[in-house]
Design brief:
- By secondary structure, this protein is mainly alpha-helical.
- It is 72% helix and 6% strand.
- Strands 1-2 form a two-stranded parallel ribbon.
- Helix 1 packs antiparallel against helix 2.
- The termini are far apart.
């Protein structure tokens, strides 16, 4: 059987795995991995598992995961499901940052630079005014 996980599912797992690495908690990660699969896919996986329990399978897999490398987690998912005859295909590897949010970050940086430029312009104006006052005092 072949299972295809789309970009959204891969991105969600990546983000959740990164959170798990930072916080040391795999509960949410396990639930997010489970939610990446459709109900039909979970049922098919459970038919192929000795235990018949995908949630338990994920728990065991996450116990095996080192907890510090997102790519290793995807390799584990692929390997462990491959062992029960399921070929998992991941849509193109995506960045951990949502592209829309990445653009927002760039806009924020642009705004910060514009504010810095305005502050510099104000500082230069103040310096010029001080020089003019000193010149007029002489």
């Amino acid at each position: 059987m072949e299972i295809f996980l789309d970009k959204r599912a891969v991105r969600q797992i990546r983000l959740s795995a990164q959170d798990a690495i930072e916080e040391g908690d795999t509960e949410t990660l396990r639930e997010d991995i489970l939610e990446a699969f459709t109900e039909e896919q979970v049922e098919e996986i459970e038919r192929r598992l000795d235990s018949g329990d995908f949630f338990e399978f994920l728990t065991d897999m996450l116990d095996e995961w080192s907890g510090d490398d997102v790519d290793e987690l995807f390799e584990l998912i692929d390997t462990q499901l491959g062992d029960v005859g399921i070929d998992v295909k991941f849509e193109k590897k995506t960045a951990a940052v949502d592209p829309d949010k990445e653009d927002e970050g760039k806009e924020d940086l642009d705004e910060e630079f514009e504010e810095d430029d305005e502050d510099l312009a104000e500082d230069e104006d103040e310096d010029l005014e001080e020089e003019e006052e000193e010149d007029s005092d002489v």
